[in-house]
Fold these 2 entries.
Entry 1:
Amino acid sequence: EIVMTQSPATLSLSPGERATLSCRASQSISGTHLSWYQHKPGQAPRLLIYGASTRATGIPARFSGSGSGTDFTLTISSLQPEDFAVYFCQQDSYLPYSFGQGTKLEIK
Amino acid sequence: EVQLVQSGAEVKKPGESLKISCKGSGYSFTTYWIGWVRQMPGKGLEWMGIVYPGDSDTRYGPSFQGQVTLSVDKSSSTAYLQWSSLKASDTATYYCARRSRWGGDFGMDVWGQGTTVTVSS
């Protein structure tokens, strides 16, 4: 079973700043099977990035993804007020598919 | 519009059975896997399992194997998650989501609104 570990658990930043979120897999996975989601309270999760680096439909260009093998990164270039939320990575390269524990991005 | 619409909130007692639903519309329901995700109060997302409506092929996460049953009804484009005997620890919000493919890339691009299940005596 692949364990996805996200860091940091909480990231405190101000609007306009750059956010860098990390996701590490316990073994190498295909980047085509790594996705990132944004989750706000009371809402369904929202797909941001699939294939490690492709933005989903309607996702602003300030969101970008990178990485391969075991290390992946989600970057938000200039934080907007609506970006403060919890972010999850997920691998669906190997069953059972698994999520990271999440990074909470909070306003400083 | 492509969407997944889930059934409403449930309040049940321990030991009771429950079946919640996820109805797809606006796309070919039988050609996309449907996954189920649990979020316990104050916790993160947990992958429960996935079902392919085309042939009902089903895979479960190890924590959920034997604890829940995933099924589909192709005729109504509906996926189901069911319990035969609920526990208090099943209290959570459950999401269904469509697993899509873009070339060789994958992701869950359409999500239901979530169904909150509360199990309490």
Entry 2:
Amino acid sequence: QVHLAQSGADVKKPGSSVKVSCQASGEIFISFAFNWVRQAPGQGLEWMGGVIPLVNRTNYAHRFQGRLSITTDESTSAAYMELSGLRSDDTAVYYCATGSSLLNVYSFDHWGLGTLVTVSS
Amino acid sequence: SYELTQAPSVSVAPGETARITCGGDNIGDESVHWYRQKPGQAPVLVISFDKDRPSGIPERFSGSNSGNTATLTISGVEAGDEADFYCQVWDTNNNAVFGGGTKLTVL
């Protein structure tokens, strides 16, 4: 089994940045891909971006390009999501989700419990 | 960009069969994954690659995909199946795309 432990809830001012961590443990494979999915209050799931450490490839959803950075620390099996230029509509629960990237069209087999980020002045 | 269309809600009586659809242009050519999300919880994968059930998911959950519609079928619906369900594919730019979600209500 795979367990994804995410950092705790955070409150940020508009215009600032937030960095959320995701620590993987358990049956972790080198082919793992780390993705970030967010969910605004009462809304659906929105994919933000992902990284495949094995091939050092990162993809970002177009709407987040320029203010989103996804990184990994392979030595600790951790992934990080940093979002800058925060606005009130970035208030959401941010999920870390992983899957095996051996197939490009992989599923998100494991999910963290989510991190609530509130953007408020 | 690729778009997935789901009905906002589906209602069924206990013991009946629920069919939750996901529409997309030639979605039958794509691999579709389905997730269940109960209130206040993280999503859980229930069907991968159109029809594969992960370990721990009951046999009551099945999937199919053809033409412009993928379908998640839940047989013998139980009260505990009430949740939001999302379909997901990858587009040609290696971006994940989610459907808008369908709320399953057990009457």
